[in-house]
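Title: Comparing notes on inverse folding

I've been comparing how different people in this forum approach sequence design from structure. To keep things fair, I'm posting one structure and asking everyone to reply with a full sequence. Here's the target:
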């Protein structure tokens, strides 16, 4: 057998590195003692203060890249528990044939030893605790000293030796491998690809590490908060079957949210709704499963509110309010509503993944109204959820679209419960097959399933409306929920930025290419496909199936919107949305067009039906539309005028801008300091998996410019004065090459190498925190460009 020379070199190098690592272990053991878990808890006030100061610096400078599953080397610095867990050489976001063992903080292990058994290695010294050993034998300290404050800064662009690509080969050395790493990657000190820490920041972190990286237990809840938690846990753990079924439903929908009470906004505490083996008043004994509907393997589940002790990150933060009024409403929807529960549903692996079976006893109206209460949070689940970024799942949506909801009082939603009784099994999702299923179903097979469902749904709707008066057989504008004239969740805008996305209230930006209309069954299926049923540790088959099935859920939402248009206008609009689609996609689209469910009774006066419909819906929802992002409410007239001009630019020239830009206007006054530019990428269609580049239509790209913040992953920071705005806009208007954009950044950009970078980064986050304290979280700076 002849071996490839390169293969032999790789094997030889691996053996050398492995041998060196073994020798290094003995060397460290001889010099600093054997590695063992360290108790770092302290009650010493000086050490407590050292931790508090270190924590602030970690939040400002480290969590911005090390905060979730997508953190390099899985090193999560958003909590002390994450620091103590350490790092892991395996990537969470990767293609795998078999599901991986979960490594979720606060869920899958609770002690240092348990994490070491899961192959996480320490970043703090776990040998003899001396100041010298804590630096020399501590990976975190060594990474920081590689980029001490006196390290000469880069200027302009980063060198090629520092890659910021998400697909870059990560180097995750243990302390025993560190000398080899430092020799081969001398410019990879922390913060990676960003300016060094200041003398004060560096000194504080090193001092804390020298002291043994002390930690202290979080402070107890205030009496007010503790009382609210107790009241809610008592409500959630009522003994009646109705209470238990309600709480299971609430848990399976709120497990990704950060729950808060209407108390002191300046010192907000968030909670996670978790399952426990113990009731309120006892320490939480967490039930950790892959999915929220997996069997808990206990006789009785208790639902508890667990304080969130990690730093809040924008990319995973979904704030959800609970208060006395909300408790009364839940009681009305789930306890006092007229229905009976004779027995609780079991945790059958297939049926538990199907909410239409599991929660069949709860009236559909109650379930739907619960989801609509905080519809932004409901939709944000599949945008943010517990996965940090959407991976391939988000390639299934357009870059910006508007979302409306079917009125729960409409004749279609009122009768849907009867339909669900017959169709509950037909509404099963591919996620009920688990995380390791390797029987990949094709797009065509999913199309067949969805066709059958839509056919049955169409027949049901036609049968339902045939029982109404003649003048009540068509769709009117009142089929769209108006938020009951008080709920600003009635209209949402979704922005997609590569593999992440943002949901905001209101109809933001100019009229989009597409829009969705969502009813109960569609909203529930999206949640159970991409939130409750999605496993970030699952294999590639699980993730592909989720993406493929979401194709049909998206098209269903789009089709619901198209049914508001005249029948003869629907085909042209849908054909425009799916230009260049494969034959099997076109066949499916044509089938839906040839089987219209119902006529539209909306009176159109122009030939531009879609724009006219948007205008009519805008008027219907006028009382509840959120306008916080609108440029119309910018106080400074000059800023407003120039940014409105900017928002109207489109075509090839705007494609040179990154997907998300934050603009900091230095002298704008007390309000409206920060604005966001979102580039809306245009495509022929988005039904072709992994072929986005070939479907791109840069000549149709647009910009959406808003007050405040859009996006969790800014690509560039821009700074300018009000007086510079006209030139700023004209410069973008004249873009014709990458060189033009580079010159633009030289004038207005705050590159990742800028000596003032951290100042602007801090200013931007403080503006977010000041203007939106409940929803504000740390931005992820790993996507900052190097152009």
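Reply #1:
Here's my take.
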């Amino acid at each position: 057998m002849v071996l490839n020379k390169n293969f032999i070199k790789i094997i030889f190098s691996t053996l050398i590195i492995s041998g060196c690592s073994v020798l290094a272990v003995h060397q460290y053991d001889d010099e600093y003692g054997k590695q063992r878990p360290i108790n770092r808890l302290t009650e010493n006030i000086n050490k407590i203060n050292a931790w508090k100061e270190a924590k602030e610096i970690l939040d400002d400078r480290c969590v911005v890249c090390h905060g979730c599953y997508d953190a390099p080397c899985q090193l999560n610095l958003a909590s002390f528990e994450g620091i103590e867990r350490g790092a892991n050489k395996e990537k969470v976001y990767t293609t795998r044939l078999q599901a991986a063992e979960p490594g979720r903080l606060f869920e899958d292990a609770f002690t240092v030893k348990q994490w070491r058994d899961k192959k996480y290695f320490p970043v703090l010294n776990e040998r003899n605790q001396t100041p010298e050993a804590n630096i020399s034998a501590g990976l975190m300290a060594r990474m920081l000293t590689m980029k001490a404050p006196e390290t000469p800064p880069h200027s302009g662009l980063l060198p090629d030796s520092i890659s910021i690509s998400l697909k870059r080969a990560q180097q995750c050395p243990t302390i025993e491998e560190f000398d080899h790493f430092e020799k081969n990657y001398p410019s990879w000190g922390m913060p990676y690809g960003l300016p060094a820490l200041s003398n004060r920041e560096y000194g504080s972190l090193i001092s804390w590490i020298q002291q043994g990286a002390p930690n202290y237990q979080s402070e107890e809840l205030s009496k007010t908060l503790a009382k609210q938690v107790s009241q809610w846990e008592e409500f959630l753990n009522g003994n009646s079957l109705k209470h238990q079924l309600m709480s299971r439903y609430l848990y399976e929908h709120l497990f990704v949210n950060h729950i808060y009470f209407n108390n002191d906004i300046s010192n907000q505490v968030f909670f996670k709704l978790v399952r426990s083996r113990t009731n309120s008043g006892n320490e939480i004994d967490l039930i950790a499963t892959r999915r929220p509907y997996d069997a808990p393997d206990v006789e009785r589940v208790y639902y508890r509110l667990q304080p969130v002790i990690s730093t809040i990150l924008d990319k995973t933060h979904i704030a959800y309010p609970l208060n006395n009024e909300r408790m009364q409403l839940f009681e009305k929807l789930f306890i006092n509503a007229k229905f009976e529960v004779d027995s609780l549903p079991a945790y059958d692996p297939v049926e538990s993944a199907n909410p239409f079976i599991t929660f069949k006893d709860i009236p559909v109206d109650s379930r739907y109204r619960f989801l609509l209460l905080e519809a932004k949070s409901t939709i944000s689940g599949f945008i943010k959820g517990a996965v940090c970024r959407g991976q391939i799942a988000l390639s299934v949506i357009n870059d910006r679209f508007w979302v409306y909801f079917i009125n729960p009082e409409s004749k279609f939603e009122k009768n849907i419960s009867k339909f669900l009784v017959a169709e509950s099994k037909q509404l099963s999702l591919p996620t009920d097959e688990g995380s390791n299923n390797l029987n990949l179903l094709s797009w065509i097979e999913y199309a067949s399933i969805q066709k059958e469902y839509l056919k049955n749904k169409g027949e049901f709707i036609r049968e339902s409306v045939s029982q109404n008066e003649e003048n009540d057989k068509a769709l009117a504008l009142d089929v769209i929920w108006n938020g009951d004239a008080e709920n600003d969740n009635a209209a949402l805008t979704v922005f997609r930025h590569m593999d992440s996305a943002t949901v905001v209230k209101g109809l933001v930006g100019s009229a989009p290419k597409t829009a969705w209309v969502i009813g109960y069954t569609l909203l529930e299926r999206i949640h159970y496909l991409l939130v409750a049923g999605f496993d970030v540790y699952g294999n590639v088959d699980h993730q592909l199936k989720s993406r493929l099935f979401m194709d049909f859920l998206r098209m269903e939402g789009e089709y619901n919107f198209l049914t508001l248009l005249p029948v003869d206008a629907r085909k042209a609009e849908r054909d425009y949305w799916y230009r260049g689609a494969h034959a099997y996609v076109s066949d499916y689209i044509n089938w839906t067009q040839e089987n219209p469910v119902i006529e539209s009774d909306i009176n159109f006066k122009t030939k531009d039906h879609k724009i006219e419909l948007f205008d009519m819906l805008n008027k219907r929802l006028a009382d509840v539309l959120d306008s916080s992002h609108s440029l119309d409410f910018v106080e400074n007239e000059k800023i407003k005028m120039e940014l409105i001009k900017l928002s109207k630019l489109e075509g090839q020239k705007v494609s040179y801008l990154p997907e998300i830009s934050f603009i900091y206007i230095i002298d704008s006054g007390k309000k409206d300091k920060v604005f966001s530019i979102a580039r809306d990428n245009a495509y022929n269609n988005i039904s072709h998996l992994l072929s986005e580049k070939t479907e791109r239509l840069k000549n149709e790209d647009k910009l959406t410019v808003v007050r405040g913040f859009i996006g969790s992953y800014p690509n560039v920071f821009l700074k300018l004065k009000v007086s510079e705005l006209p030139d700023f806009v004209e410069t973008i208007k004249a873009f014709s090459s990458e060189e033009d954009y580079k010159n633009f950044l030289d004038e207005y950009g705050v590159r990742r190498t800028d000596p003032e970078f951290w100042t602007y980064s801090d200013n931007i986050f403080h503006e977010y925190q000041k203007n939106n304290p409940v929803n504000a979280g740390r931005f992820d700076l790993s996507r900052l460009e190097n152009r």
